[in-house]
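Progress against Task 2.4 (sequence-to-structure conversion) is shown through the following example record, which the project officer requested during the mid-term review.
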Amino acid sequence: MTLKAHRGVLKKAIGLSMTAALIMSLLAGCSASSNEGTSGSSTAEGERVTLKVEVFDRGNSPAPYTITNNYLSNLVQERFGDPNNIDVEYVPIQRSEEVTKLNVLMASNTDVPDIVFVYDSSVFYRYAQQGGLTDVGELIDQYGPNLKKFLGEDTLKFGQLNGQQFAIPGKRAITGRYSSYIRQDWLDKLGLPVPTTTDELYTTLKAFKEQDPGNLGSQNIPMGMALAPAQFETLIYSFIKPVKGDLTYGQRYELPLHEGFKDAMQFLNKLYNEGLISKDFSLDEDKSQLGKDIQNGNVGYWSEDVDVLFYKDGTLDNLYKNVEGSKVLPVDVYTNAHADNKYIKSRYGTNGMYIMIPKSSKRAVEAIKYLDWMASENNLIDIYSGVEGENYDLVDGIPVVKTDVTQEFADRLFNAGDMAIISNGKNIGDQATNEKAWIMGFPEHNQELLRQSIDIANTDTVGPIIFDKPIEAESKYGTALKDKLNVMIVKTAMAKPEEFEKVYEQEMNDYMSIGGAELKKELEQALQALPAE
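Structure tokens generated for the chain above:
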């Protein structure tokens, strides 16, 4: 059936509610399951089978599409399903309820899709330990050569447990996370050089406060701060000592277990008590206030996710519109004494989500074939980018979104990121190519600054250690320790300087008593068990 014919079928189905569509797909899946072969088996020649695939429902389907019947679902059926005698059926799960709903489906055995996924490693480990997942190692070797080549051994390791391949990790296109920025016009007004070390940054922040180059008075914020990872993690990483070369513990709430964490908190305390950072940062977990302060021209220096400033009509565009003569420069200033004064910062692991095939699935072979199809030829680009000439133009071999794309053509890709599950971000080629493609999707007037920002995000990075077994204390105490980390940051930052030692000791004792001690012990044991390099 052609995509045009699929659209005709789609229009007839618009009256179905999401709930009805989910019930119908589950019933169809149950019916198919009762007649199909053993787990992992291929189908008899000529037999038509159903492959059920989880899909995130974000409630954003533009008419006439639904989350289960749309341009991309029709493309998959036409290019992969029909040639392989497979009906590909999408089972929607609300993004906000993904783990809760998936737990229910996994427990049912019969209603669970053949392909499911989560971002939470602890959920993946739990399913694997409980015997709920298919070991797909041999299946990938037999049916997934393109998939295996696309992911690579380093990424595949994220889905391994005790030597078995229980998940297929999505591949992250870009691993750089954070960059920092300074108001070049403030530096110019004060005749100051660009700071290049932590000490020089402190001196610059003091000058911003005392000399107020923006003539802001009480609105002057030398350093923008929020209770969010992009702000506090960049500072903390510049003080801590990585535990193994350019690798360290992977969870954010494990930061207090590093040598140097106390020094980071003491520096933050100093900045707060001297009035150098956002006064109410503890109330700004979503960074909304920080964003407003930057756009209004009140902030002299800040850190942020590598891409956040540069979207059309976004933070940087609004700053330049609101404050005449303002100028922003990406900078790398936090130096780490534990690492030869390198500009240490965290990077993402190469994995995205954990794609899994439940043990109860009878369509494991078809599932691997589906993922392998996605990794072959031009399929991934077509899912992400749509149709050349309608959705994008090729520029130096890179698909670049058309600036004048019609709403009809744009709508066909509303769920592209959720359909291309083997890829977190647009994987066009190697990381340099992916970065080039990413940059070309931003407004041309912001592309050079984004390029500089990405270069900084890739400098002196530290990534997560991959253990070959789960850290049990992470799943047991992770939620409580994550909340505790935020409390520690706030309380130690706001303590009076003479009370810092007492407050820090109390907070660290609390952290250790609610699971930190057990976590520390288990991490150190797992670290010792890693093979020598």
